[in-house]
Amino acid sequence: MTAPATIREFEERLAELAGTMPKRLRQCADFVAANQDRIAVSTVAEMAEGAGVQPSAFMRFCQIIGFSGFSEMQKLFRDSYVGGWPDYRTRLKHLRETAAGSPVALLAEFTDAGRTSLEGLLKTVEPAELEKSVGLLSEAKMIHIIGLRRAFSVATYIAYAFERMNVPAMLHGAVGGLANYQAVRPGDVVIAISFAPYTAETVAFAEQAAENDISVVGITDTVVSPLRPFSAATLSVTEVDFGAFRSLSATLGLAIALTVAVGAARNGS
């Protein structure tokens, strides 16, 4: 198997092979999919530690993808990094060192992480997928929105925006274990939002919709996201984290663009 020549080829191969990998290598796949920005600046030991595996297992993962080893995979990402990948790690490290722990420093750190996430949004969202999403949603009889846990605020905002623009939409939740899937009818479209670690209820909702020939627009993060197989269109967004926390700056930016575009299309603008 030849090595992927581009990041796009790498992502496609990762998505193709991830489901067939044993547990340890799947850990590598999940970690790499969620942290592609770290490959260019990390050692194989650091990547292995992040994935929770031994370096030898991570090397084996690189070989299964088609590389001779970690160095060859890293070179692919370093070439892309030189082309404009933001070095957010260096900036956040500087902020931590100069004013660690203060409220002002935390504000600066999360602002910087949010800015970087927004800058990366145009790289992760495929224009064709965005156009397809708007087309599906603008023709839907009813738009059903589901996003739980961290994604709930995004789902709620989309529902609110559609309400203000007189776009028929329904927000689904999981109160009492009730998904209200019976409200979905032929001609409707589902927006499903979930990020790693993925919410089982959201994935199940999308799966049931797809099985019943209901189009799904997925808003998710990695190329191995379980939402992708059930989505007629997928909008990819990656949030830069600070510590164990991730804001929703880029995700909400995408949500605003999507809802306004759909509202404009439905109102003939």
UniProtKB/TrEMBL annotation:
Residues 8-84 form the HTH rpiR-type domain. It comes from the Bacteria. Residues 133-269 form the SIS domain. GO terms for molecular function: carbohydrate derivative binding; DNA binding; DNA-binding transcription factor activity. GO terms for biological process: carbohydrate derivative metabolic process. InterPro entries: Homeodomain-like_sf (IPR009057), HTH_RpiR (IPR000281), RpiR-like (IPR047640), RpiR-like_SIS (IPR035472), SIS_dom (IPR001347), SIS_dom_sf (IPR046348), WH-like_DNA-bd_sf (IPR036388). The keyword Transcription regulation applies. Keywords: DNA-binding, Transcription, Transcription regulation. This is MurPQ operon repressor. It comes from Martelella mediterranea DSM 17316. The gene is murR_1.
